[in-house]
């Protein structure tokens, strides 16, 4: 039994599914930036700061709240929370565009979905070494998580 589905098949389906909406949105975002003459402000440092500030605005909805209060807050302020999440995503897409990074590609290459690029999301091992196992198909997993 394989450890993961065929990543090539998943990539092909994802590329088919993301292209129309994702690429159209990126083009609309680039046009918006151009029309407003914002490009001069969209450098990596300022975009990273903007992401952090928008994430802080999102966090304001949840600070000092218990699980029940968070649940109520997500219902009563759903539109505000959506807008903050959208702002974070827009700035992240713009940052990736400025850096020449394909966001979907780098997310796919991260350790979280079978890529080998990141150890940040690997499960810690209670004992032994934290090792990455790979198979010929390209799937990789933390040895202790298998």
Keywords:
mainly alpha; Helix Hairpins; 2 domains; two-stranded antiparallel sheet; disordered N terminus
Would you spell out the secondary-structure blueprint of this structure?
Layout: H1 7-35, H2 44-60, H3 67-76, H4 78-99, H5 103-109, E1 132-134, E2 140-142
Antiparallel strand pairs: 1-2
Q: Strands of the biggest beta sheet: in what spatial order? A: 1-2
Rg (C-alpha, Å): 19 Å
Q: How many β strands by DSSP?
A: 2
Q: Note poorly predicted spans.
A: 1-7
CATH topology of the largest domain: Helix Hairpins
Which CATH first-tier class of the largest domain would you pick? Mainly Alpha
Order of H and E elements? HHHHHEE
Taking the sheet with the most strands, its summary is: 2 strands, antiparallel
Strand content: under 5%
How many structural domains in the coordinates?
2
The mean pLDDT is 78
CATH level-4 homologous superfamily of the largest domain: MazG-like
Write down the overall geometry.
extended
Helix percent reads: 55-70%
How far apart, in Å, are the first and last alpha carbons?
13 Å
Known CATH architecture of the largest domain:
Orthogonal Bundle
Count of separate DSSP helical elements: 5
Structural features, described:
The longest helix is centred in the first third of the chain and has 29 residues, at 7-35. The protein is 58% helix and 4% strand. The two termini are 13 Å apart. With 146 residues, it is mainly alpha-helical. A hairpin with a 5-residue loop joins strand 1 and strand 2 (140-142). Helix 2 (44-60) runs antiparallel to helix 4. It folds into 2 domains: 7-104, Helix Hairpins; 110-146, no CATH class.
């Amino acid at each position: 039994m394989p450890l993961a589905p065929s990543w090539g098949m998943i990539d092909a389906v994802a590329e088919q599914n993301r292209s129309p909406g994702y690429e159209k949105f990126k083009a609309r975002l680039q046009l918006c930036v151009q029309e407003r003459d914002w490009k001069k402000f969209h450098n990596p440092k300022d975009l990273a700061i903007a992401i952090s500030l928008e994430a802080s605005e999102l966090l304001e909805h949840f600070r000092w709240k218990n699980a029940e209060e968070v649940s109520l807050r997500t219902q009563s302020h759903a539109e505000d929370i959506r807008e903050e999440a959208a702002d974070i995503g827009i700035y992240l897409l713009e940052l990736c565009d400025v850096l020449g990074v394909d966001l979907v590609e780098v997310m796919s290459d991260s350790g979280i979905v079978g890529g080998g690029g990141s150890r940040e999301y690997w499960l810690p091992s209670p004992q032994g070494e934290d090792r990455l196992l790979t198979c010929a198909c390209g799937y990789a997993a933390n040895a202790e998580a298998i």
